[in-house]
Every structure is written in structure tokens, then in C-alpha cells.
Write a structure and sequence with these properties.
CATH topology: Alpha-Beta Plaits
Oligomer: single chain
Shape: flat
Number of domains: 1
Radius of gyration: 16 Å
Number of helices: 3
């Protein structure tokens, strides 16, 4: 099996607009989705990311203190999963609960180790 990365893109505006109960229910949906992949031994790992960071530009001398992207393009987290091909990984990504809250999922194949 190959490994694929799901990059979750979006901002926190919708999250912040929800009640604590709605947020908790949404997190339970995430846990269920990831749990199902884990039961199938297709989940490798992943984490949520902070919204701030540094960008090092070509040449290595210029550093900006946050990515220069629109809010909806911010990478909020990632998962690594196993699948036979990108089409299978894409089908898995379609179950992402974040899609209900205006986030996007980018599916990328991880370069295999040499």
C-alpha cells in the first residue's frame, strides 16, 4: 500500500461561530471517521496545526512570520493514510467531517522511502 497525506485547508471562522456543543459533536464525527480508518489499518497518523508559522523564501535569507495565504487556504492539519491508489485515498477523504464546515481536503501521495 502507498501512503497519502490529507491536507485540511480552511479557517476557523465557522468553528468559532459554533456553540461548544456543536464543536464537541463535530469532534466526535472526526474521531469516528479516523477510528474507522484505524480499524481498517489505513490510518498512519496526523495532527492539527497551529495557524501561525514561518515561511523561508528562496535563498534562505528572507523569512516571513506567517504564510502569505488567504484564510481558506491555511493548512489546519493533516492525516497520513494508506491506500492502494489515489482514487481510493480520495474516496476516503470524501468522508471528512470538515467538508461539512466549509473546509477543503487536498489528497497527495507521499514520496516512498528509498
Amino acid at each position: 500500500m502507498k501512503e497519502f497525506m490529507f491536507l485540511f485547508r480552511g479557517d476557523d471562522k465557522i468553528w468559532d461561530s459554533k456553540s461548544p456543543e456543536e464543536q464537541q459533536m463535530h469532534m466526535q464525527e472526526w474521531q469516528q471517521w479516523i477510528g474507522e480508518m484505524a480499524q481498517q489499518e489505513k490510518f498512519v497518523g496526523g495532527e492539527r496545526l497551529y495557524s501561525h508559522g514561518n515561511t523561508i523564501h528562496p535563498g534562505g535569507t528572507k523569512v516571513t512570520d506567517r504564510p502569505l495565504t488567504e484564510g481558506k487556504e491555511m493548512v489546519g492539519g493533516y492525516l497520513i493514510v494508506k491506500a492502494d491508489k489515489i482514487e481510493d485515498a480520495t474516496e476516503m477523504a470524501k468522508g471528512c467531517p470538515g467538508l461539512q464546515w466549509d473546509s477543503c481536503v487536498e489528497v497527495r501521495e507521499v514520496w516512498p522511502e528509498c
